[in-house]
Amino acid sequence: xxxxxxxxxxxxxxxxxxxxxxxxxxxxxxxxxxxxxxxxxxxxxxxxxxxxxxxxxxxxxxxxxxxxxxxxxxxxxxxxxxxxxxxxxxxxxxxxxxxxxxxxxxxxxxxxxxxxxxxxxxxxxxxxxxxxxxxxxxxxxxxxxxxxxxxxxxxxxxxxxxxxxxxxxxxxxxxxxxxxxxxxxxxxxxxxxxxxxxxxxxxx
Length: 204
Hints:
By secondary structure, the chain is an alpha+beta fold. It has a domain at 63-202: CATH 2.40.50.100. It has helices spanning 3-25, 63-69, 120-124, 170-175, 190-202, and strands at residues 72-84, 94-106, 113-119, 134-139, 157-160, 165-167, 187-189. A seven-stranded antiparallel sheet has the order 3-2-1-4-5-6-7. The chain is globular and about 50 Å long. Mean pLDDT is 76; it is low at 4-56.
């Protein structure tokens, strides 16, 4: 009835309709770097915290860069650890860690207690503390949620032994190999490191 040309038009029309319907159900194309791996997806209302980029390539920065990035710098001993569930209206569970400040360089006072809160995910990933532990910390400025973490992750945290010596991990040694105060050392006196931190603060 339609002739050869009419049949051809009908076929083209049907093909176009089926193609459009198929596009309605096809998954949207998303750039690979915007995809979140399924195992890191959280339920609605939960927060995925961005990972801070490294400060600089290993060996190309030292204490001055850490001092500039930090909002809180001190050495002290852990006295209390408390887990705080998310309160109504909040979306993160936290861990509150209280320290007795031995030496405060920024945002902390010697001889006083200092409490910080960190996201529970950091604790779960291994960034933990224990009561009685003595540390030197470089912490980022407190966020709007009242949370903080070590500058550069584990690089902003140093263990301090009973003799007052700051102990450098293999990662610390690699990163600070060109730093005047820490380069080539596996340990340093806390008093020497405190002096280096104060000098770096004065140069800001």
